Amino acid sequence: MEQRSGHLTIIQCWCVCLIIAGLLIACSPPVPVPPSPTVAATPALMVPSPTVQPSPTVVQIPTQQPTVVVAPSPTAIPTSVPQPIATAPTPVFPVPTPDPALMQRKPPLGTFFFYWYNCPQQECDSSQLLAVPPGWLTPLPADPDPRDGFSYSSYNYDWYENELRTMASIGISMVFPVSWGDHPHPWFRNDRLNLLVQANGVLEHPLTIGMFLDTTAQQGMYQEFLGNGYRFGPDAPRLPLSDPRSGYFFYNLHIRDFFTRVPREMWATIDGRPIIITYTALCCDNLELSGTLWQAVKDAFRADFGVEPWLILEETWLNPQALAPPEGLPDSAQVADGVYRWGTALLGPHTAELRGFKVSSVGPGFDNSRIPWVREPRGQPRDEPPGGGSPAPGAFLRASLAAIPPDTDLVLIETWNEWPENSAVAPAAYTDRDGRPLPPDFYLQIIRQWREQFVPQP
């Protein structure tokens, strides 16, 4: 290919202008969009789309150059043959009152919270799990009013309150619900956030709520928009960021509604700016326009809410393609406020820094070998420390937490409750490598102990 000169040709300039104009329009605040459903992250899911959606009508507002980002999912090493699952009832343990001094210690501790469950009614096959949480197969223990929901379910107010109280008891101060925006599953709709907010509001020390923007949803939204059904995964076409409507699927159909439902006083913030953490860039093509997309998203957010979000991109959004935009457009690193790595439950602890802001992410281990549609199962035993060493219960999480530097600005636990991939730390019927039962709050004890002993850099 001929090397590009220092100036764009007339045709190139015209193309770039068209892309910018389209993205600006797509991210401008349109007529309010009704809340949309969401779904669990399952590869290559196809949900029939009854009708093709009409082109969105939006109102253009003056913004700066827009930005777009895409990121892949984590990778791992092949796992061994699955062992029998623990089926004994999970005991219920008392949740201690949060220590205010512990909650105020820096850095903030956050976790990724999955609310796509509706057990035992839909998609709750316990044979896919290595550890079964309370309420998965039977009514949630001690639920004062089971009429408000169904066990381990996003319909159940008491489930939300119990999960949030448990998080707070170990020093977690920020919760990042995984959000898919529009999705056909009714139990994973954006309106499920209303129960999360309601439950959070009764806590003595409510958690703050940030957004985990699962960008896989953009792939599904775009395919449904084209009339191909809600499809995502490696076998489905990606959302091209060169499409002027791409910003519509990120902001108008997804981000805006999330922050409209979460009260400002509950927003998780950095320097007063609400936090958005993205999933990987596997959803999208044309990543050279990712910086443009994300800037447009930031500008539209500021126009609606009066403040610019604090954007933490998954590192795949900062790949070489994303860092080489067309001349005159920003790259994703210029627009992002932070960067992190998804997949630390599998790959080990990681700290990433962008312009002096450090994000550390850790997990307890990983195993997706029981999920039927996974083509290449991967795993990291929970009892084996990263990089090798003497096995012991919880060794992977202990060593990962110990690797967090004292000057980090934010710590993320991956995950609170992603059960099919066995990366959860929430109470469940865990066992050690020999099948012996562990206390249901075993991993919470590890986090609590680290939190109490962690000494941040002055």
Automatic annotation (TrEMBL):
InterPro entries assigned to the protein according to its UniProt record, in alphabetical order: DUF5010 (IPR032178)
Transmembrane parts of this sequence: none
Region ranges (Disordered): 371-395
Compositional bias per record (Basic and acidic residues), positions renumbered to this chain: 373-385
Origin: domain of life: Bacteria
Domain DUF5010 intervals: 153-429
Name of the protein in question: DUF5010 domain-containing protein
